[in-house]
Design brief:
The structure is a single chain. The chain is mainly beta and 136 residues long. Helix content is 10%, strand content 40%. The strands form 3 sheets. It has a 5-stranded antiparallel β-sheet with strand order 3-4-9-8-11. Strands 5-6-7-10 form a 4-stranded antiparallel β-sheet, with no helix packed on it. A two-stranded antiparallel sheet has the order 1-2. The longest helix has 10 residues, at 104-113. Mean pLDDT is 85; it is low at 125-136.
Length: 136
C-alpha cells in the first residue's frame, strides 16, 4: 500500500493522509467516476473525464478508499501524465454530466485540493460489485 500512496501519514489506527501530487507527472485522485466498459479483451475500467471522454485504466491503478465519517466511498486512481490519454466514446455516459472536460492538468488541480482528506483502504456501500472481487 505504501508504494501506491506517496508519503503516507497516519491520522489514526485506520485513517491516513497522503500526497496526492507525487511530482509534476504523477498524481493520485479520489473519485467515483470509474466504471467498466466492454472491450475485446473483456471488461476494462475507465476514468470518465467528460460527457463522452475517458481514460482507460489498468487494475493496478485503482484502490478502493473510504471515510465513514465524511460519507466517502470512492476510488483512489493513480495517473501518470505520459500515459494519461483521453479517448472519445461514441455516445455520452449514462447518468453522468460534466460541465467541462478534464485533462491531466485539470485532474492535478483536483488532486492538489484533496491533499488533506483522510481516507482508509477498503470497501464501502454502493461500490460496483465487479470490483469487490478484483481488489483486496
Amino acid at each position: 500500500m505504501n508504494e501506491f500512496f506517496a508519503n503516507k501519514k497516519a491520522q489514526s489506527n485506520k485513517y491516513f493522509t497522503f500526497d496526492h501530487v507525487i511530482d509534476d507527472d504523477n498524481i493520485v485522485i479520489i473519485t467515483n467516476n470509474i466504471t467498466l466498459v466492454n472491450t475485446k479483451f473483456g471488461k476494462s475500467p475507465i476514468l470518465m473525464v467528460g460527457n463522452n471522454k475517458a481514460i482507460y485504466l489498468k487494475e493496478w491503478q485503482i484502490r478502493p478508499v473510504m471515510n465513514y465519517g465524511e460519507g466517502l466511498y470512492a476510488f483512489a486512481v493513480k495517473l501518470n501524465r505520459n500515459f494519461c490519454k483521453v479517448y472519445t466514446f461514441k455516445s455520452d455516459f449514462e447518468g453522468m454530466a460534466f460541465e467541462k472536460e478534464f485533462d491531466f492538468d485539470g485532474l492535478k488541480e483536483i488532486a492538489e485540493s484533496q491533499n488533506d482528506s483522510p481516507v482508509r483502504k477498503g470497501w464501502g456501500r454502493g461500490m460496483q460489485i465487479e470490483y469487490r472481487h478484483q481488489y483486496r
